[in-house]
Amino acid sequence: QVQLMESGGGLVHPGGSLRLVCTASGAMLSNYDIGWFRQVPGKEREDASCISKSGLTQNFAAFVKGRFSISRDNPKNTVTLQMRDLQPEDTAIYFCAVEEGCRGIGENWGPGTQVTVSV
Q1: C-alpha–C-alpha distance, residues 82 and 48, integer Å
Q2: Is 92 exposed, middle or buried (0-12, 13-18, 19+ CB in 10 A)?
Q3: Residue 26: per-residue pLDDT
Q4: Model confidence over 36-90: pLDDT tens digits?
Q5: Is the separation of the CB atoms in 118 and 88 below 8 Å?
Q6: Handedness of CA 64, 69, 74, 77 (dihedral sign)
Q7: CA–CA dist 21, 34 (Å, integer)
Q8: What residue spans of 4-93 are helical by DSSP H?
Q9: In Å, how far are 1, 5, 71, 89, 105 from 19, measured between CA atoms?
Q10: Mean pLDDT across the stretch 94-118?
Q11: Is 65 left (phi over 0), alpha (psi -120 to 50) or beta?
């Protein structure tokens, strides 16, 4: 069974950028559609982006507004979420997960990485 681990979170100023990486172990990442979700404590987890197994299909939530891009490197077993023009409302814990069919339902969650956007 695939295990996922996020990295790349941190503290940035408004307008800044971060690159989050989801690394898989235990199975080939190429077998899975992968999603990036985020959650603010006390609020529902929301789906930010998803990429299909081949990388040809990429979905983004409306709140991304063209600021995020998603890519994958199957030989390296990684999926990357590049985020730019970050705003305080993007502050959350970001998780990667298996998201079969990119339907908004995640499983095999990683532990998450904190993203904080603050002056």
Answers
A1: 12
A2: buried
A3: 95
A4: 999 998 999 999 999 999 999 999 999 998 999 999 999 999 999 999 999 999 9
A5: yes
A6: negative
A7: 12
A8: none
A9: 26, 14, 11, 17, 23
A10: 97
A11: left
pLDDT over 90 percentage in the chain: 97
Residue 75, token pair as written in the block: 């030989």
- Concatenating the DSSP letter of every residue in 33-58 gives -EEEEEE-TTS--EEEEEE-TTS--E
pLDDT given at position 45 = 96
**Pick from 1, 7, 10, 2: nearest CA to 90:** 10
- The rounded distance, in Å, linking the Cα atoms of 98 and 26 is 13
In the block, tokens 């730019």 appear at: 84
